[in-house]
């Protein structure tokens, strides 16, 4: 889902084209079909996609890249996610937000949002992965509903099977070994994809 979000955002593919290319019965088609039901090309980063999916799986209605305007119709901000029916913006804060100029811009933006009665909740990767319950609890508070931990069940199942978890990476490595030619000596290093070796979910700069 994350990979497709990125491809859609960059304009490399579209959902109808992917569906047209799918061959019924081929390995992975079932998973791909389910992923297509969850994609949204408005996501601008991998972690933004993950944060969106956490809310979707928990039954929190969100609108990606929501525009906030003032009384004159001027755009004040564009939020990663807006919880529908509320004035709560939910965003992923990557390492770029620690840049001095970006930090100043963020402060101006947050004050402008506060003046309009909006709340901005920013999350980093370790929060999303280590404490998703708090993220959902925050969303439930914005919606004015009682927090129900069972809403995390689907998220826990899906993230546990994905390459964002240790178990999922191990399963992916095992699957990739099937494509290593038997007549080529295997290198001892992990077959883990380079992107996964470089960035771990617990890396604040991921």
Automatic annotation (TrEMBL):
Residues 186-206 are annotated as: Disordered. It holds the Pfam family DUF559. Residues 84-140 form the DUF559 domain. This is DUF559 domain-containing protein. InterPro entries: DUF559.
């Amino acid at each position: 889902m994350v990979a497709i979000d990125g491809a859609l955002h960059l304009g490399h593919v579209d959902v109808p084209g992917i569906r047209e290319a799918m061959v019924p019965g081929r390995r992975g088609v079932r998973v791909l079909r389910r992923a297509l039901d969850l994609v949204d090309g408005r996501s601008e980063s991998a972690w933004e996609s993950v944060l969106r999916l956490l809310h979707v799986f928990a039954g929190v209605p969100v609108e990606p890249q929501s525009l906030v305007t003032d009384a004159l119709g001027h755009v004040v901000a564009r939020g990663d996610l807006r919880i529908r029916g509320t004035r709560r913006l939910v965003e992923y804060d990557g390492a770029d937000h620690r840049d001095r100029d970006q930090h100043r811009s963020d402060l101006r933006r947050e004050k402008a949002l506060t003046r309009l009665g909006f709340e901005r909740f920013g999350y980093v990767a370790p929060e999303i992965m280590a404490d998703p319950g708090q993220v959902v609890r925050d969303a439930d508070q914005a919606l004015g509903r009682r927090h129900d931990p069972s809403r995390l069940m689907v998220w826990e199942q899906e993230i546990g099977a994905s390459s964002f978890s240790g178990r999922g990476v191990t399963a992916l490595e095992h699957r990739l070994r099937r494509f290593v030619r038997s007549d080529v000596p295997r290198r001892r290093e992990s077959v883990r994809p380079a992107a996964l070796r470089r960035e771990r979910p617990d890396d604040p700069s991921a």
